[in-house]
Structure formats: structure tokens, C-alpha cells
Design goal:
This protein has 22 helices and eight strands. By secondary structure, it is α/β, with parallel strands linked by helices.
Length: 680
């Protein structure tokens, strides 16, 4: 746990012109010189730990873990076996409830309709094959990872891209809610007394997986391999033993429909619409199959080939388990109706093995893989949120990594939305399913349509065959999307239909705000701004610089009019993004020195505060900090700007002999008068 920072030894005052950098070298020092003039680097000790806030930070470190350097961000590449366990847990886990949802709809027409469960499952498996073959083309075209948002945004435009992103965000939230609810159902199927505590158990599981992700638990091959391969092995054994038991029994016809295990009263006629409802409910089996195409870059070389092979293996395993589960449920006459507390998977296990150790092993692995399936969303949702924030469609805080190198704000947002759904729908898989899969198939359709556009535009080798494959996939998933929309609309699908455009419009409005802000702040790279410090004050002025824009220019100009000594300070936080400030500075501000602070622990305000404190040890032992700020016209735009600046102003407000001056700049392009916030 970091102790209060010790001050680094002060170096000479930066002279006009050169760029200097700090780096971390000694423990317990806030910032230290790197050896290159004007370059420094911040340590974890740059963050002060005093008072109530310090106590809260120490407590957070005990729960989440201490801050990690960005240098530890690199990950090992995954083999096909490990990647199959990591990326397929969501898709494979859907076999735990997909057959159940088919039976839930068909049973409305009485026991005679249960025989249609196998044809419906076969149709869904064929659709799975079409989707997987289509996504293999996406893997080939996007070896760095091609999620639906990236493919649609790049090939179809902003609006389709945002619709795909909105569909994916909704899908990620529903994946957590459905997986956790199904995991809880697996628990109380084996332990009936737990049914009354379904919601608290579900919320506890969500909190547990949130905490694990906030701590930065990596997708370890061992952690994922045990429940994933264990579930595949135990369910495969269940299907094999069940088939052998049937073939050696009194009724060896495995394709016959068994006598129903429960009393059934037909509520509806068997119509094409009812069969389509069952088909749309069973299409939840396809959720998560796109995860491999999103994570191609995580594979060992050759990445695209290994990812495509892994996706094929996943499809074969998923299709076999899904068909086998449906076949046994159909032959055993298993019935599942609204209000039942025992899942179809539990009934199959009890029918094959009885309620013995093997049965409880099946239930344990089912609950385990469903729990891990939720973790797939905890990787996808924060990453997609960070990409959207990088592109300017979400507040930029979603692109900031937390203590443990994860996108903490995305994790917290996903947890909040999933918990809200679990409470609102009483942690019931059956009540959540009507909302599920609609967004999945919309993103499938947009991604495949984007791929067709890409092939027709670029005409890369083999583009004709690839375009046909993606076109077939797009048409198939588009038809399924329409079927799901029509059959599930009144059951709850309307909520997704309403929410999806709301999210897309909100993202578009945020993007419009940031684009307008960038236009009003733009300073051409070729512009030479020969601003020279020529004020009458001898007190040095430090100007924090996030980027070279009009707000920075106005703040530097005001500082030069105020003092004879002006120093700009730029903090490098994100190792994934290359800053242009340093390379542009000497050309555009040759008379103003720039101090560059590398911040591998991703703090901005604290390293600047430590640098300011360091300057206080030099004559005249007083410093003015002129902070460029943005003024916006609407109250709801305030969370989109000035987040790091607010922390800096608050932090420096407690320092003696430091004058903090805000240099407000209007988003409309009009500078405002400076405001002195504090002077000691």
C-alpha cells in the first residue's frame, strides 16, 4: 500500500524551448527525472493518502488490490485449447436452458407438440452452422478482432455501427442476467430450499464476479478450462449413457416421444406461429458464438487460422450437446411449464443417473459454466464501452483503466444494469429470455451485411465466395431477427425495441458534442504560436496541457502575459494511444518549456500536484497553476468534460503558496475571463 510521497530532488528550472520528462525510479518518490531533460515519470506514491479520502483509498486497495503499472498490460497469447475454454463458455452454457425454452413454448399446445422440439433444434443447429461459417470470413478479414460494431461502423457507417454497438451492450447485460439466473436455477434444482432466496443469491454472484473483474483477474486457462471442459465431459457422458440406456431398454427407439412426466393442459392450438415462437426461444443457443471473432488477436500465430479452427470446434461441440439434450428430453417426455422449479437439465440428469453423486456433479458443472458465461460479458461490455469512448460516443471516463488495468467504469455500469434486471425479473430465466437474442441477431445481421459491403468494395482474393457466404448469413440472421421480433414483441421484446434506439441516439448525441468541441478547439499542426513569457510577475506559472488546442493556446497566452516564467506540463496516461503533444510542442511553442510526466499508474492530477510541490522548494517558493477548463451550454454536458481538471483543482486547493487560476473556454469558441479559485 503506498505511503505518503517523498519529494524528489529538485532539478534545474526548465529553460525555454526544451522538453523534459520524469520517470519512476526510486520507491516512495512521487515523480523522478528519467535522465532525459524535462522528462519525468510518476510512481504509485504520487497519489496522496491523507485524511478521509486516504483512508477510503487504502480500504479500496484491500478490497480491489493496489494499483498496477500499465507496463503489465501485455498478455500471453492463447493456444486453441485454452481459447476454446475462455471464449466458448457463454455459447456452450446456453445448452443448459435453450432446450428448456423450446419445451416451455411447445407445451402450451399439449403433449403432442413436444415431438416438434427435435425438428426445431435441428433448424437452430443448421442456423448455427450458417452463422459460424459466416463469422469465419469475418475472422479472415479482421485478424485483429472484428466485433459487430467495428465491422458495421467501418463498412456501413455511423448509424448502423451505433445500432450494432447498442445491440451488443444490451446483449452483454442480458447475458449476465440470464446466465446468473440460470445458474441460480441449477442450484435450487439440486437444493429446492434455495428457491426462496433466488434474488439474493443472484445478486451475490453478480457482486462476486464484479469484484473478481475489478481486481483484474485474468481469464486464466485453468480457471476456465476446469468448469468448461468439465461441463462438456459430464454432459457428453450424460447424453451417451442416456442413449445407451434407451437402446438397451424396453423402448429402444431413441427418436420416439416419451410419455410426459407431468400433467399438461393444452392452452393454445399448435400453429406455425407457436412453432416459430419455440424456434425464436431456442435461438438463445447461438448467443456468444461471436466471442471468438472479437478476440482473434489473443490467439497464438497464425491468429486467424487458429481462431477459425477454434470456432469450428466450438460449433461442433455446441451443436452436438444441444441436439443430444433435446433428443433425450423428447424421448423421456420431460415437461417444463411456467412455475416449475426444476430445470430440464436437472430432470435429464435425474432420469439418466438418479439423484446420486453424478447427478450433483452435472448440476455443479452446469452452475459453474453458467457463472463463467456471465464473465464473458465482463470482458466484452467494458471493452466495447472503451472503444465507444475512444471514438467519442461515450463519456471518456469509460476509456480510463482502473487500479488493476481494467475498465472499471464499464464493469460498474454492467453490474448495475444486470442487478437491476435480476431484481425486476425476480432472477427468472423464463421471464428474461423474451428480451434475449433480439439484440444478438441484430448485431449478427449488421456484421454480416458490413462484411458483404467490404468484400464488394475491396475485392480481395476470394471475395466472391466470401461475399456469398456472408450474404447467406446476413439473410438468414435477418429473417431470424424478424421472427424473434414478431414472436417475442408482446412478451417483453418491445423493451429491447424501445431501449436500443434510445442508446444509439444518446451515443450519437455524445459523438456530435465531441465532434463539435473538437472543431471549435482545433489548432492546425502547421500553426506556429510564438508565445513568449513577458509578464511582470516573477512567480512561475504552470499550465497543465492535455492536448494542443485552442483552450491550451489561450491559457498559455494568459500565462505569458502574467509571468516571466511559464512551464507547460503534459501527463501521458494511456500506453495504447500515442500523444502528439511532445512532437508538436517545440515547433508551435518554441519559447515555452514542456515537462512530460509518464504516468504508468494512470493518474493525472496527482503527478502534476507532486511536480507543483517540487517547484515550491525553489525560489520564490510560490507557484501559480493556470488550468484550462471547458464551459458547456447544457447541464447534462458537464459529465463529458473537465473530469481530470476537477480533481486537480480540488487537490491543489489544499496546497499552501499555490494560486489556482481557471482559464475557462466556451465550447462556442469564446474565451472567458480567468477565475482565481484559491490563493494561499
Amino acid at each position: 500500500m503506498p505511503e505518503p510521497p517523498q519529494e524528489p530532488r529538485s532539478g534545474p528550472t526548465p529553460r525555454p524551448g526544451p522538453i523534459t520528462r520524469y520517470r519512476v525510479d526510486l520507491p516512495r518518490a512521487g515523480i523522478l527525472p528519467t535522465g532525459e531533460r524535462g522528462h519525468f515519470e510518476a510512481t504509485e506514491y504520487a497519489q496522496t493518502r491523507t485524511g478521509l479520502r486516504g483512508s477510503l483509498l487504502n480500504y479500496k486497495d484491500r478490497i480491489i488490490g493496489s494499483s498496477m503499472s500499465s507496463r503489465r498490460l501485455s498478455e500471453e497469447r492463447l493456444s486453441k485449447k485454452v481459447a476454446l475454454a475462455i471464449f466458448s463458455s457463454d455459447a456452450l452454457s446456453s445448452t443448459a436452458y435453450a432446450t428448456q425454452e423450446i419445451l416451455l413454448i411447445l407445451v402450451l399446445a399439449g403433449t403432442g407438440a413436444l415431438g416438434y422440439s427435435l425438428p426445431v433444434a435441428i433448424a437452430i443447429t443448421l442456423l448455427l452452422g450458417i452463422v459460424v461459417v459466416s463469422y469465419r470470413q469475418t475472422i479472415r478479414a479482421y485478424p485483429g478482432g472484428g466485433g459487430a460494431y467495428i465491422v458495421a461502423h467501418e463498412n456501413l457507417g455511423v448509424v448502423p455501427g451505433l445500432l450494432a454497438a447498442s445491440a451488443l451492450l444490451i446483449d452483454y447485460v442480458l447475458t449476465v442476467a440470464v446466465s446468473i439466473a440460470a445458474s441460480v436455477e441449477a442450484i435450487y434444482s439440486a437444493v429446492p430450499g434455495a428457491h426462496d432466496y433466488a434474488v439474493p443469491i443472484a445478486l451475490g454472484l453478480v457482486a462476486l464476479i464484479m469484484l473478481g473483474n475489478l481486481r483484474g483477474i485474468r481469464e486464466s486457462g485453468t480457471i476456465f478450462a476446469i468448469p468448461t471442459y468439465g461441463f462438456v465431459a459430464v454432459l457428453s457422458a450424460t447424453i451417451a449413457v442416456g442413449i445407451v440406456k434407451v437402446l438397451t431398454g424396453d423402448s429402444p427407439n431413441i427418436f420416439s416421444v416419451g410419455e410426459p412426466t407431468g400433467e399438461v393442459h393444452a392452452e393454445k392450438a399448435l400453429t406455425l406461429f407457436l412453432v416459430l415462437r419455440a424456434f425464436s426461444a431456442g435461438c438463445t443457443a447461438l448467443t456468444g458464438v461471436e466471442a471468438i471473432s472479437n478476440g482473434v488477436s489473443a490467439f497464438k500465430p497464425p491468429e486467424a487460422r487458429n481462431a477459425a479452427t477454434t470456432m469450428t470446434a466450438m460449433a461442433l461441440i455446441l451443436g452436438s450437446l444441444f441436439l443430444g439434450t433435446t433428443l433425450l428430453a423428447r424421448h423421456f417426455g420431460i415437461v417444463y411449464q411456467h412455475g416449475d422449479n426444476e430445470t430440464v437439465m436437472s430432470q435429464i440428469g435425474a432420469e439418466v443417473f438418479g439423484r446420486n453423486a453424478v447427478y450433483y456433479t452435472l448440476q455443479a458443472f452446469t452452475a459453474g459454466i453458467l457463472f463463467l458465461a456471465a464473465n464473458t460479458s465482463y470482458n466484452g461490455f467494458p471493452l466495447l464501452g472503451a472503444i465507444l469512448a475512444r471514438d467519442g460516443y461515450l463519456p471518456r471516463i469509460f476509456h480510463q483503466r482502473g487500479n488493476r488495468l481494467v475498465f472499471s467504469y464499464g464493469i460498474l455500469a454492467l453490474t448495475a444494469f444486470a442487478a437491476l434486471l435480476l431484481v425486476a425479473f425476480n432472477a427468472s430465466t423464463t421471464r428474461l429470455i423474451p428480451l434475449y437474442a433480439l439484440g444478438v441477431f441484430l448485431s449478427f445481421t449488421l456484421a454480416q451485411s458490413g462484411m458483404v459491403r467490404r468484400w464488394l468494395t475491396l475485392k480481395e482474393p476470394g471475395w466472391q465466395r466470401a461475399a456469398v457466404i456472408n450474404a447467406v448469413g446476413g439473410v438468414a440472421t435477418g429473417l431470424v431477427f424478424v421472427i424473434i421480433l414478431v414472436t417475442k414483441f408482446r412478451e417483453g421484446g418491445w423493451m429491447v425495441v424501445v431501449t436500443l434506439p434510445v442508446i444509439a441516439i444518446a451515443a450519437w448525441l455524445i459523438g456530435r458534442f465531441y465532434r463539435g468541441l473538437d472543431r471549435s478547439l482545433r489548432v492546425p499542426p502547421e500553426a506556429q504560436l510564438d508565445l513568449k513569457p513577458q509578464g511582470i510577475s516573477g512567480i512561475p506559472v504552470i499550465v497543465p496541457v492535455e492536448a494542443i488546442n485552442l483552450a491550451t493556446v489561450m491559457a498559455i497566452g494568459a500565462a505569458c502575459e502574467r509571468s516571466r516564467e511559464v512551464v507547460a506540463v503534459h501527463v501521458l496516461v494511456d500506453p495504447d494511444e500515442r500523444s502528439t503533444v511532445e512532437e508538436r510542442w517545440q515547433k508551435q511553442f518554441p519559447s515555452v518549456p514542456l515537462v512530460v510526466i509518464d504516468s504508468p499508474f494512470r493518474t493525472v492530477a496527482e503527478p502534476i500536484a507532486v511536480y507543483v510541490n517540487d517547484r515550491l522548494h525553489q525560489p520564490p517558493h510560490e507557484v501559480t497553476v493556470m488550468v484550462p477548463t471547458m464551459e458547456v451550454r447544457r447541464w447534462y454536458q458537464r459529465p463529458l468534460v473537465n473530469q481530470s481538471v476537477k480533481r486537480l483543482i480540488k487537490l491543489l486547493g489544499t496546497r499552501r503558496h499555490v494560486t489556482v487560476v481557471e482559464a475557462p473556454f466556451s465550447g462556442g469558441g469564446r474565451p472567458r475571463g480567468s477565475r482565481v479559485r484559491r490563493q494561499s
